[in-house]
Design goal:
By secondary structure, the protein is an alpha/beta fold. Helices cover about 30% and strands about 15% of the residues. It folds into two domains: about 150 residues, Aspartate Aminotransferase, domain 1 (Alpha-Beta Complex), CATH 3.90.1150; about 270 residues, Type I PLP-dependent aspartate aminotransferase-like (Major domain) (Aspartate Aminotransferase, domain 2), CATH 3.40.640. The longest helix has 22 residues.
């Protein structure tokens, strides 16, 4: 998905605060963070009181750094899980939200039409891809997915939804059935009790679900499997639609081929399936274009879901977008009290305008190029670096025990994460996974990002000198085998 366009400066020129580099001066967690944990852990659930992955307490953000209670600073490659696309809230987004608060206060936009919400709906109709022009208000990506499923079923009169393994569609009770995120603990207690969802593997050129050993593989083979299901288990005329992430996020940043999209689109047209693209993680510049689907030819979605970066770093907001055929005559009641409150809508519009002002998308492409240059060289050097993948400012390193088999290296990934923390880099690490992810701010200066990549490379080399022992099974007891 790389582009060769020459990068230009982000919309706002970086200041000394923006180009400050991280520094860790204490053990982690430091004494002040430890004292806070001692007070607050008894107030939280067991999972929230675990501090292995983030062993500090944030007290503030400045520039592109997180500062903890002990004065340590970390380069922020989590970015509010994508909801802070420009680092700390940009002045233009904050000003727009402040003005909307002053004018509207808290308002239920699904019931009381207001200028802030309607202006954003108009903007989305103008910039949405293809035939899409209608909007349903929502407040989170989870609710947008739930609403989209209802729209697909209403528009077609059909019961089934096809989704792809490893995708993350939120944490509601129902559509946890369409979530796997690589690990079964995400869906424990929900998937097996829900009907109406058909799951097939996500297209993956690095690790085939059907064959052992290293790739690259043809990612269209998952559609061969889907064709098999249509004959053996599911009649295609029972399927309402397909729910797919254009880039697999939680599952390790996998980018489908043009051939995959061509064939999936043909299947949707043949059987009358609605193509619903979940862009909650990939929209608004995250993949180097306003929408990730813009990076391929001929994708013509019927529905498109927005969240995370859509808020511009402001308040929670999400959206269900669709064509006239899907949404014009809908009678569904999907609205929520907090869907598109005026301040959130105003902030989201200001975020879109910040991208349209220029420089942001070019900077994202520059960050992707830096990642490939530095991590690609590391892959050639270190046996355990199986692959480096990026789609704009969504990036991942996948670790393996050895390239001959591509067996996952979960312990190696966790050790790399800890080594990165000691060097002042906070990326996305999850227990049981073997890929380490980054999602820097879209406007992070190239020099700051390159410094983080160099620190990550140092961390990988440190762990590779004495690799940790790997378990014979994953955390959920799934045998790795030579797979």
């Amino acid at each position: 998905m790389s582009t060769r366009n020459s990068p230009s400066a982000p919309a706002d020129h970086p200041t000394s605060r923006d180009t400050e580099l991280p520094a860790v001066r204490t053990a982690l967690p430091g004494p002040k963070s430890q004292a806070i944990f001692a007070r607050t852990d008894p107030c939280l659930t067991h999972g929230m009181a675990s501090h292995e992955l983030v062993p500090f307490v944030e007290v503030r953000k400045r520039g592109y750094l997180i500062e903890d209670a002990d004065g340590n600073t970390f380069a922020d490659h989590i970015g509010g899980w994508g909801s802070s696309p420009f680092g700390p809230t940009p002045p233009s987004v904050k000003a727009a939200m402040d003005a909307a608060w002053a004018e509207h206060g808290m308002e239920i936009s699904v019931f009381v039409p207001n200028t802030a919400a309607l202006a954003l709906a108009e903007k989305l109709a103008a910039i949405a891809p293809g035939r899409i022009g209608r909007t349903q208000y929502s407040v989170t990506g989870t609710l947008a997915v739930e609403g989209a499923v209802k729209h697909m079923r209403e528009a077609t009169g059909r019961p089934l939804i096809i989704t792809f393994g490893g995708q993350y569609h939120g944490e509601s009770t129902y559509f946890a059935a369409g979530v796997s995120s690589d690990l079964s603990n995400v869906t424990a207690g929900s998937t097996q009790y829900v009907a109406g969802v058909v799951m097939v593997p996500y297209p993956n050129r690095f690790r085939s679900p059907f064959r052992r050993g290293p790739g690259p593989f043809d990612d269209c083979e998952v559609l061969d499997y889907l064709d098999y299901l249509l004959v053996q288990q599911v009649h295609p005329e029972q399927v309402a639609g397909v729910l797919i992430e254009p880039v697999l996020g939680e599952g390790g940043i996998h980018v489908p081929s043009q051939a995959f999209w061509d064939r999936l689109g043909a299947l949707c047209r043949k059987w009358g399936w609605i193509l619903c693209v979940d862009e909650v993680q990939t929209c608004m510049g995250r993949c180097g274009s306003m929408f990730a689907v813009d990076n391929w030819r001929g994708i013509d979605p019927d529905m498109l879901l927005l969240g995370k970066s859509f808020c511009g770093g402001g308040q929670p907001i999400a959206a269900i977008l669709g064509t006239d055929a899907v949404m014009e005559n809908s009678r569904l009641l999907i609205g929520s009290t907090y869907g598109w409150v005026p301040a959130a809508a105003a902030g989201a519009l200001a975020g879109i305008e910040l991208i349209e002002a220029g420089g942001v998308l070019e900077n994202v492409r520059a960050l992707e190029r830096i990642f490939h240059e530095q991590m690609g060289a590391l892959r050639l050097e270190v046996e355990q670096v199986g692959d480096e993948r990026a789609a704009g400012a969504l990036m991942a390193l996948e670790f393996v025990q050895e390239r001959r088999t591509n067996r996952p290296a979960q312990a190696f990934q966790r050790a790399v994460h800890q080594a990165c923390l000691r060097r002042g880099v906070l990326g996305i690490s999850q227990v049981g996974k073997w890929h380490y992810r980054l999602q820097p701010a879209l406007t992070m200066p190239a020099a700051v990002f390159a410094d983080s990549c160099a620190r990550i490379a140092e961390a990988v080399r440190e762990v590779a000198r004495n690799p940790p022992a790997e378990s014979a099974t994953t955390v959920e007891g799934v045998v790795e085998a030579d797979h």
